[in-house]
Amino acid sequence: MQFTQLCVLLFVLPFLHAELVQVIQLARHGARTPNSFEYLPNQYNERQGELTALGAVQEYFLGQEMRKRYVEDLKFLSEEYDSSEVIIKSSWKNRTIRSAYAFTNGLYPQKEGTWLENQYADGFPLEQLLPLKNRQKVINREDIERIKLNEDFARETVEIVSMDGDLYFHAVKSENCPTAEKIVKEIKKSNQNDEIEKYLKLTLYPQLVSGVNKHIGFNLLNVDTMTLKGAKSVLDSYRCNSFHGLDHPDVDKTTLKILKKSRYSYVYKLMLVDDLVRSVSASKLLREFSDYIRSAENRDYGAPKYVFYSAHDTNLEILLSIFLHSDHIDSGEHYNIIPFSSMISFELHKEKETVEGVNGLEVQDVHYMKIFFNDEPLFVKWCDDYKCRLDQFYKILEHYIVPSLEDFCSLGRVITTGDHINGNHTTTESSGVNLGANLCSEDAICQEI
Fold first, then answer.
1. Is the confidence at residue 427, as pLDDT, over 80?
2. For the structural domain made of 12-174+283-346, what CATH number should be given?
3. How far is 21 from 89, CA to CA, in rounded Å?
């Protein structure tokens, strides 16, 4: 009997393809103006930190690419927007809202709308429009010169997360979670931060200050007052101007490399090395991910098929620090210098698996998660493969979700050394933070999961 069953299964299984069940994506906004530092005034029409026309074009074609994949090729989503299938959310920042509007119009183009002219189209390298590795949508020069946007449709479609108490995208801020902000402030006062500053004062700041001052023709920057925060602002301005094809200083390769490494050190080696900071920053999103995925797994009525978040590079960095091994982040510049319109994708799949059942061999459904960064499959650090079984994926989420995040933030409490972010942890009133007390080491997570 079992031999007969095996023969049948061996014949049938090749025709039982994996099924895409749900897609959750989080993307950085499109190209913007510099946030705080500009080499020369009036280079942009937009205000500081605002999405540019080029950034809107990026997001529109990011939406077009997702339409090509999930609507046209896979027939996963309906031709027309269906609120029961699709959820689109945005951070409250204007640049992410405008990005979400452009993305929505790309995913579901509307007949009516207003043309947005892209003054950066002339000479822009088309291959750099999106950082995706496997683009399928063919884009021509005239395509990026202007796009049609229906803002009324976008306003009705996009859900904007409130600025007040934003634990989705800006949790580690004093106004949203004072407890986490205390931890961040203590980290910035740490010896490790001082060591980074000392290193950069010797290796980076003199060349950086000299190069910028020489370019603009007067002494705007000063070596003695330059800090890591200031260096990051200079890097930000350099990246914005170079991407838009605007005037910027010639930064030699060594200085640029140190600039990028300084940001990497600050983000991954200083800020996100603390498990509690990562957990507070990601909890709201991961909790919602878990809810959406469970509803899709159980085929609940109203479970969305596609969820898109318009967010920031810091949100991507947090998720990468959770799911990706630190060695991979260290070796890949694109992980720590997140390009505009970069995207992390979580795809829930279901496939058939042969198992030994009560009555012999039988076929059952198995769900697993695939994670991609700009189309590059990620080897999830706590899974055995590029495919992460769903029960294992849930354990990772549970580890990084603070059970009562709102209470934790509103009460101003700090989890003490030895407490765990999972389960029935205890909290105590505290004004100090032990920086060496990560909630559990990677080895401990390995043992647990």
1. no
2. 3.40.50.1240
3. 20
